[in-house]
Amino acid sequence: MKKTLILYTGGTLGMRRSESGYVPDADLEGALGRLLQDVIGQLPQYDFQALDPLLDSANMRPKDWYHIASLIRDNYSQYSGFLVLHGTDTMAYTASALSFALQGIEKPVVVTGSQIPLREMRSDAYNNLIAALLLSGSDDIREVCLYFNGKLLRGNRAVKVNSGSLDAFSSPNYPCLGEVGIQVNIDHNALLVPTGEPQFQIPADANGGVILLKLFPGISPSLIEKILESRPKGLIIETYGTGNAPTDDSAFTEQLEKASKLGTICVAVSQCLEHQVDLGKYAAGSALLDAGVIGGLDMTSEACFVKLNHLLAMGYSDMEIKTLLQRPLCGECNHPN
Ligand code: ASP
Questions:
Q1: pLDDT, tens digit (0-9, with 9 covering 90-100), for 292-319
Q2: In this model, does residue 222 exceed pLDDT 90?
Q3: How would residue 226 be classed by pLDDT, with cut points 50, 70 and 90?
Q4: Domain end: 136, 165, 200, which one?
Q5: How far apart are CA 25 and CA 19, in angstroms?
Q6: Which one of 86, 88, 91 would you pick to mutate in the ligand 1 pocket, going by the greatest count of ligand atoms within 8 A of its CB?
Q7: Are 234 and 284 found together in one domain?
Q8: What is the pLDDT of residue 115?
Q9: Catalytic residue list contains 239
Q10: Measured in angstroms, how far is the CA atom of residue 131 from the centroid of ligand 1?
Q11: How many domains in the chain?
Q12: Final residue of a structural domain among 167, 200, 233
């Protein structure tokens, strides 16, 4: 018999109004039961667990990702699927983190939330919840997904693209895994096919010490120097286009080269949502390569940040990390050409 564990972490879906705006509310299980009573026979059975404290996902930290992952690991054999109710703001980060922590799973883990609280008129929570719960009972899905507004996306390919529409998420560099409209259509060719046993990777210290830096016209090498003074273990640089940076000022690349030599793993992703980084294409990109920066392929910033944090937190050596960054671990990027 199908049974899903629902983990309620917070987010708009369960929020109520307060004088300072929406805040998480613990009282969701009853509301959920009332809402689902007419259709419950068509859905997987479920147990409900609310995390404490419930969080606006803007307050999520890496330790919270791994707390959710450890609950899934600890309950893995008792349930046929998992549904994580989460705020939309950092949902793509958490979904990415779960994918790295729960590699090779043979059951669905579906992350969802809503743009309007369940208690409010015209809420999108009802549709998102029902479809996500239904999908958590699928035999075909064996990976971490994000479901929102009719679209099933790979968790580590998803990006929040709209804060003012019910259609909040997109997967710019990878096809939708499925669509829920009048019919439920799963794209079986797009799904991950796990090989081997599940590998739970939950680090003891969740914080890998990674900084995410977006380039902007006029960024000064001294700013980079200041940022690198803290000796981060990893630096994700959101570069322009195919991986370009203001390399006509050699002080800029010198800072990165110095950081690489001192052991900071520097990775370039793109500010563009579609296509991929190719550091050799322009001189403004190959200078980064020469400085020891690695290309982040077609990963989203979110997935790349989480992946580097994960590899560092897991204690892989720098050599291993550089190799693993260039290779898909759970569908987060395509194989390099
Ligand atoms: N700030 C909220 C959160 O991320 C937004 C939402 O859930 O849509 O928790």
A1: 999 999 999 999 999 999 999 999 999 9
A2: yes
A3: very high
A4: 200
A5: 14
A6: 88
A7: yes
A8: 98
A9: no
A10: 19
A11: 2
A12: 200
Is 330 domain-assigned? no
Q: Are residues 226 and 173 part of one domain?
A: no
Around ligand 1, the residues with Cβ closer than 6 Å are 10-12, 56-58, 87-89, 113, 115
- Contact (CB, 8 A) for 24 and 15: yes
Whether 336 is in a domain gets the answer no
22 & 151 share domain: yes
Same-domain pairing of 160 and 295: no
* Structural domain for 235, as ranges: 210-325
Backbone dihedral angles phi then psi of residue 95, each to the nearest 5 degrees: -60, -40
Residue whose structure tokens are 């390099």: 336
Q: pLDDT confidence of 189, banded at 50, 70, 90?
A: very high
The Å distance, Cα 302 to ligand 1 centre, comes to 16
Task: Annotate 248-263 with DSSP letters as a single string.
Answer: TSHHHHHHHHHHHHTT
Q: Please indicate, yes or no, whether residues 29 and 149 belong to a single structural domain of this protein.
A: yes
136, 214: one domain: no
219: left (phi over 0), alpha (psi -120 to 50) or beta: beta
Read out DSSP for 269-332?
EESSSSS---TTSSHHHHHHHHTTPEE-TT--HHHHHHHHHHHHHTT--HHHHHHHHTS-SSSS
